[in-house]
Design brief:
The complex is a heterodimer of chains A (about 325) and B (about 325). By secondary structure, chain A is of the alpha/beta class. Helix content of chain A is about 30%, strand content about 25%. In chain A, helix 4 runs parallel beside helix 7. The radius of gyration of chain A is 21 Å and the shape is globular. Chain B has one domain: Rossmann fold. Chain B contains eleven helices and twelve strands. In chain B, the strands form two sheets. Chain B has an eight-stranded mixed beta sheet with strand order 6-7-8-3-9-10-12-11, sandwiched between helices. The chains are: A alpha/beta (about 325), B alpha/beta (about 325). The interface between A and B is large, with 40 and 49 residues.
């Protein structure tokens, strides 16, 4: 029954409770509000959205850092809500996280080898010698060469780009099947971003690791993603493959996002950029109907009242918008 | 078209002394900005661009080792002013600054309106009420509703906080605003809105900007002139149209080629190696260890600034 599907997420919701007062009814931040998708082995999905879109919460819920409010997460055929407590560490070994800030996520008081040894120790993998080999291999894969040099350096001796490679090596060292990368290159310089993304792509191809690449920067997508999901106010509003999304963005929010990105054109300074007005909505009280309706240039009465379903417009290209019914 | 020079920077140096040695953060930098113009300073982390901003605002730490050069504004060399004179007439009066992260620069326990009013209260003999009135006017100008003047910074979104910082930089009617990565902590759409705001303010108020960023594509939104900074030096200084069409310095070219873009086919390009330490930069041309066109001369002798075209300078032996 070996199918290629690694992860299936079905109508996932994650709400956070916010109590206003002693006697008032609790309010909920609906950070993830009905997300469904599937991810194949060795595939990369880019999860694109601005802050407050729910993308980080979605990533953390998949990692098991948060437990779902409702909905299912099915990993290799196993429903995670049915896992016994002693099975959870096994899941955590298969799914790893890379975060945005290498300076924040890597302890400064450990030398690099000790940073990479940590996940092996925690998961009781190998003896000293075997761990040493795994660490060497991990440093080689992220091309921190010569390995002997980087092995005993301390984090403050490394640049941001190098430290992010250490974070990637740390995620790799226990040989996961899925890596959630939450804004892995946002804090790096432009010239280094592309290099690190190229490294992730190489790892994906060589080791068949699946990735969920969370970002707000659409211009990096083309270097590292096959499928793109656009998130807005806790929901996925458009799903497409990379080419399809850029050639034919369907959802008005996607179109607005693409228009907001500057390209290298000296004439940019002579004109104003067309930007969708307003800001993303409160997740406690999102607008009724389609959540983008207050800012949408094509809004109709139906949009204000009824939430649109997910409509498959083209092959592998679906959108949550009444314009396409 | 005759342009009036607003700021002339000549041979500016800022070196710090540390346990590891002398950090040559700004190492002989020269440029001119005209009235109503934007100079974009583009460079990666560690190139000295933030130190350049601090040098111009004279916001210096205690471990300054060398601070010299000429900075001429309205016929006066402001480097010759003593601290109290500089504080009275230049800093936050003629030249102001917007920092990168609003979270780090806004005082969390002071209401927004009062913070925006502060530079005015300090610099001019106006009452608190008068200053607050002016602050509210400016907040409206930058798109913040009056009601938010009475709130604390944490009650505003990231974009709103950044707008408040911009309002604060404008309240004393400066001629020049230095913006150090003002949008890098913001989302793409918020960034686009802030860039539109900066464009509008420049037109309406006749401001000049120094816009510091690592994002080449973003710099096109404002730049009339571009200065590419590397290891404490400006390696290419040019008008925007020429620069974005065809940069000349090898580092500038590679920076352009490695900027992620949305449109157009692009092969992955990155610059091998890492930017050098400002303590012990390479001898000769500082880019030489990473330059694909390096020659023996580059390794030994530092190239001068060569004027390849009117107002277009390149610090590279190849352009000689």
């Amino acid at each position: 029954m070996e199918n290629n599907c690694l992860l299936e997420v079905i109508n996932l919701k994650k709400y956070f409770e916010v109590k206003k007062g002693f006697f008032s009814k609790p309010l909920y931040i609906k950070a993830v509000d009905g997300v469904s998708f599937s991810l194949k082995r060795g595939e990369t999905i880019a999860l694109v959205g601005e802050s407050g879109s729910g993308k980080t919460t979605l990533g953390k819920t998949i990692l098991g850092i948060y437990s779902p409010t409702s909905g299912k997460i099915i990993f290799k055929g196993r429903d995670l809500s049915n896992l016994k407590p002693n099975e959870l560490p096994l899941y955590r070994r298969k799914v790893q996280l890379i975060q945005q800030d290498p300076f924040g996520s890597i302890p400064y008081f450990f030398p690099i080898y000790r940073v990479l040894e940590e996940p092996l120790i925690v998961n009781k993998i190998g003896n000293r010698e075997e761990r040493r080999k795994l660490i060497y291999d991990a440093l080689m894969s992220v091309r921190l060469l010569p390995v002997e040099d980087f092995y005993s350096k301390y984090p403050h001796m490394l640049s941001g780009g190098q430290l992010q490679r250490v974070a990637i090596a740390r995620a790799l060292v226990i040989e996961p099947e899925l890596i959630v990368a939450d804004e892995p290159v946002s804090m790096l310089d432009a010239s280094v971003k592309v290099e690190v993304l190229a490294l992730l792509r190489e790892l994906q191809e060589k080791r068949k690791i699946s990735f969920i690449y969370i970002t707000h920067d659409l211009s990096t997508i083309k270097y590292f993603s096959e499928k793109i999901f656009i998130m807005y106010a806790g929901q996925i509003v458009e799903k497409a493959d990379r080419e399809g999304l850029f050639k034919n963005p369907l959802h008005p929010y996607t179109q607005a996002l693409l228009k907001a990105i500057p390209d290298i054109d000296p004439n940019n300074r002579k004109k104003f950029r067309e930007v969708a007005s307003g800001e993303p909505p409160s997740l406690i009280n999102p607008p009724s109907g389609c959540r983008f309706n207050p800012r949408c240039p094509y809004v109709t009465d139906k949009c204000r009242v009824e939430e649109p379903p997910e409509i498959e417009v083209l092959l592998n290209h679906s959108v949550k918008c009444w314009l396409y019914k | 078209m005759n342009k009036t020079a607003l700021l002339e920077v000549k041979n500016l140096y800022l070196h710090y002394i540390t346990k590891k040695g002398i950090v040559r953060a700004v190492d002989n930098v020269s440029f001119t900005i005209n009235m109503g113009e934007t100079l974009a300073i583009v460079g990666e982390s560690g190139c000295g661009k933030s130190s350049l901003a601090r040098a111009l605002m004279r916001l210096l730490p205690k471990n300054v080792y060398i601070f010299k050069g000429e900075v001429i504004m309205n016929g006066t060399n402001i480097m010759e002013l003593d601290e109290s004179e500089f504080r009275k007439s230049i800093r936050w009066k003629k030249i102001s600054m917007v920092f990168q992260s609003a979270m780090d620069s806004l005082n969390p326990v002071i209401k927004v309106g009062l913070q925006v009013a502060e530079p005015l209260i300090y610099h001019e003999k106006v009452s608190k009420e008068e200053a607050l009135k002016r602050a509210v006017e400016l907040l409206k100008l930058v798109g913040i509703p009056e009601a938010l003047a009475d709130r604390y910074p944490f009650e505003l979104s990231g974009g709103m906080q950044q707008r408040a910082l911009i309002a604060m930089s404008l309240i004393t009617n400066p001629d020049l605003v230095i913006l150090d990565e003002p949008t890098s902590a913001l989302d793409i759409m918020t960034q686009a809105n802030i860039m539109n705001l900066l464009k509008r303010l420049q037109l309406e108020l006749g401001l000049s900007y120094i816009f510091i960023t690592h994002d080449v594509a973003l710099s096109t939104e404002l730049a009339d002139k571009v200065g590419v900074m590397y290891a404490g030096q400006i390696v290419e200084l040019s008008g925007a149209d020429e620069f974005f069409t065809e940069p000349i310095h090898p580092y500038a070219r590679m920076l352009m080629a490695s900027a992620p873009t949305l449109r157009g086919e692009k092969k992955l390009a990155f610059i091998p190696g890492a930017p050098p330490s400002l303590i012990n930069p390479p001898s000769g041309c500082r880019f030489n260890p990473r330059c694909p066109y390096v020659t023996d001369k580059c390794r030994v002798e530092e190239p001068p600034e060569i004027e390849v075209d009117s107002g277009h300078y390149v610090k590279c032996w190849i352009s000689y």
